Sequence to fold (256 residues):
Amino acid sequence: MAFVKTAFADSVGTIAFDREAKRNALSADLIAETMAALADFRARGARAVVLRSSANGKVWSAGHDVDELPHADVDPLPYNDPLEQLLRAVKAFPAPVIAMVNGSVWGGACDLVLSCDIVYCEPTATFAVTPVTLGLPYSMSGLLNFMSRLPLNIVKEMFFSAEPISAERAEFVGIVNRVVPSAELEEAVYGMARTVTTRSGAAIASAKETLRVLSESAPIAPTTFEYLHNLRREVYCGPDYREGIAAFLEKRKPRF
Ligand code: LCV
Fold:
């Protein structure tokens, strides 16, 4: 594997992002390797999976690989987008996926953390969701994912400001289960993983899938879906998205 490191011991799988040069930006290649590791762990009957960064660096993940986003006039987060596929794979994995976060988390990587079942981080971790810095209309499933985890005013603060949330505040609002001193983070995460492996995997899998279905059940009429999709289409076909992507690629601040 070129972009992730994996390990499997005592029924616990580990996937560690290993693309430091691009701050673990979630490219299609990195995601393909992550998905392959999840499939392998599923085949081996993993009872828990830990998702982490291989380097204890400043950045856990910089989010979607912006170089792989369309420049204009195309939905940037379609159903089959690699990152969208990864979020669904994590939520559908039949055992707990535990996020071990050190450093800053950005954009779609924040959605990935919130798609995990349990989240631990160290005290300097931060969490930011950043589509409004790109003029990007976030996906409905992504917004619902945040809504099912956080109070609406916190979701709005995160999405409207794109400002990072500190580890201390992330624990207070519920983004993370526990903030743990760096030196104890690994033991806390793998201790939880070990505990989970002593419980009924079948009962956990059914509870996880039930919670997934119920938390995603937002019945809307087809015309309502079309209305919401049109709201997004007007944005990704509009000037802000074109300017946001261009500014990122030109390494300058966007002018909205
Ligand atoms: C590609 C990157 C990236 C990157 N993609 O290092 O949530 S949504 O809707 O917005 C969704 C679509 C999404 O997730 O979009 C991506 C949102 N992510 C961000 O806005 C974070 C963008 N990155 C940064 O702010 C900085 O890179 C951080 C703060 C993560 C790290 O800063 P640092 O100074 O340590 P550099 O910025 O120098 O980045 C190192 C290399 O990684 C590339 C960046 O272009 C640079 O590449 P080169 O060395 O080739 O110039 N890089 C960083 N993030 N998301 N490439």
